[in-house]
Amino acid sequence: MWTRGTTQWVFLPRSGIRLADGPSPGKNGAVADTVRSAPDLPGAYLFRDSRGDVLYVGKALSLRRRLSGYLPALEQRDSGRVSPAKVREMAGKARSLEWIVTSSEVEALLLEHNLIKQHLPPYNIRLRDDKSYPYIALTMSEEYPRVVFTRQPHRRGDRYFGPYASAAKVRETLDTLSRIFPFRRCRGVRPGRRSGSPCLQYHIKRCLAPCVGGTSPDEYRQVVEQVAEFLGGRGAHLLRRFEAQMTEASAGHDFERAALYRDRLTALRHVLERQQAKTFSLGTVDVIGFARDERSANAQVFLTRDGLLTDRRSFTLEGVEGTADQEVFERFFGEYYGAALFVPPEIVVPPSVEGLEALGGFLEGLRGQKAVIRHAERGDKRRLQQLAEKNAALALEQARHAGEGASARRLAALERMREVLDLPRLPLRIEGYDVSNLAGEHVVASMVVFEGGVPHSSDYRRFAIRGFKGQDDTAAMREALSRRLRREADSLGDPSQEPGAMASSGPSSGPAYDPSFEAVPDVILVDGGLPQMGVAAAVLAELDLSHTIALVALAKREEVLYLPGRVSPLRLERDDPALLLLQHVRDEAHRFALGFHRARRRVAATESFLDGLPGVGDKRKRALLTHFGSPDAFLRASREELEAVPGLPGKVARDIYNYVHKTG
């Protein structure tokens, strides 16, 4: 039995789940037979491929009726209605089917949501960028909480507000909050600076200076609670409270304190007056607009708190081909409110959305919070819902135009590159290489991949260069290219192997298989001039790949191209599409190599001054680095400062101090 919220499901593996295995591609007879035996009951179902990976998760009020719609695609027959391409492709890969019977549609919706989160099936609708938005966090787990920008996973005990549409919006909000509420701005878990004196924020009346005892923990937490009220949309309550405190201070002849509240009151009023659509008939409600086309959908969520339209959030859903509008909306609803930190008491949805009671039950089972889900037929809420739908349609149209324009520009750049490099076909796969080091230390190389003119980051690879000592960029480039291309040469030289497979004489011979090396690049770009071009051409010649892969070097500063067999460099116009694309590849390879090099330097620096300290393991290393911030600050620390490191016992701190000062 599995319990989630107030809902319980009993799984019966023998009678509640049916499996089918083994049919040949395109003739999924066993899966089709399993579909025909499905019960006329609500539940969720999973299609799996030959490896057992989940391809698609769905839910249905009647499993029999819903699954029967897949029979034409599974049997590859004409039913008079053409199945969507996505369904046909998924059905061609399906090798088994499972279903789980539930007692209601609400339970089926909850179960589908959890199965999708668990398996991340490739053929389900995807809510793009739904986990990349920034938040404002109140670190309530600390004695003197901070108000900070974060993208990190939520920590227990802290309070989070968001997600926000952009990082700039979060920073603007934090700046506004600092002018109204005197919370501390220092970064550490403990307030204050190493000098022990209060910072500028205290002197300009924007901090209560908990670092020097200017306030008690309880008084400071009241300020942080006011921040939470403001972020939660209760600005009107704060206005009344500030007015009362200002009046009280003035009546007691504490005019300096009254002036502080007056300034905060003025700043708060200014912020609230800038809010949009002030109409207290709205209350606290989320208003959702929805629009879709053949390839994608967009949902707009307008958030109103205490009658103020406080934020608008836009979400794009991909992979909606052949999926009913109701299912697309339910998928968005589950993704968004499944991760939401706050569920308002009322949610207004588009008039076309059905099953409002089921959505309400789903929300209560998922979040444990009740909410009224309704259509708005008139008034301010209806007008706001229509505005949300208009914004969704405009966002969808804008994304479509942007996508079409970007595709046209990428195609033009690839066509131009084919012309410039005299290639027999479009360079659909471009690999870029760069080397990074510092005075011959921590030498690394990078490989980045562009497919169709866009980065394909899952195929990026990094090389730690170990074949020589010292600084030699050409030798490092030779090693990186040889390690990447030798596998390709072995594969192309053995006709008995399938494309992309590696030559191997046994299970332990040769390097491990790497899927990023499966595809043959059309063009290899090296960062540099004639020396890098020469060594790259030599590697291709040694491996007999010169006629298979085109080669180009792009030199910095001059931004000219060096090509094999050409004495003088090729100069293109600064706005030439081919040059711009090659610069993008070169810059991405440089960024990736530099990031790897810096990471290795950080590891080496950490090992050099923290390894060997008595009583210090990985956890205490991180604590020391987090607390002091740099090796120099650690080495300058006094015994008392070491004893103040959180999580470091006093005896260990004293041993560290004696060890460091004994060895110098």
Concise summary:
The chain is of the alpha+beta class. It folds into 5 domains: 2-124, GIY-YIG endonuclease; 135-191 and 198-274, no CATH class; 285-333 and 349-359 and 368-398, no CATH class; 429-497 and 515-595, UvrC, RNAse H endonuclease domain (Nucleotidyltransferase, domain 5, 2-Layer Sandwich); 611-663, 5' to 3' exonuclease, C-terminal subdomain (DNA polymerase, domain 1, Orthogonal Bundle), CATH 1.10.150.20.
Can you describe what's shown?
- It is a single chain.
- The chain is an alpha+beta fold.
- It folds into 5 domains: 2-124, GIY-YIG endonuclease (3-Layer(aba) Sandwich), CATH 3.40.1440; 135-191 and 198-274, no CATH class; 285-333 and 349-359 and 368-398, no CATH class; 429-497 and 515-595, UvrC, RNAse H endonuclease domain (Nucleotidyltransferase, domain 5), CATH 3.30.420.340; 611-663, 5' to 3' exonuclease, C-terminal subdomain (DNA polymerase, domain 1), CATH 1.10.150.
- Helices cover 43% and strands 17% of the residues.
- It contains 20 helices and 21 strands.
- Helix 15 links the parallel strand 19 and strand 20 (550-554).
- Helix 9 (235-251) packs antiparallel against helix 10 (255-274) and helix 13 packs across helix 16 (577-610).
Properties at a glance:
globular; seven-stranded mixed β-sheet; 664 residues; single chain; 21 strands; GIY-YIG endonuclease
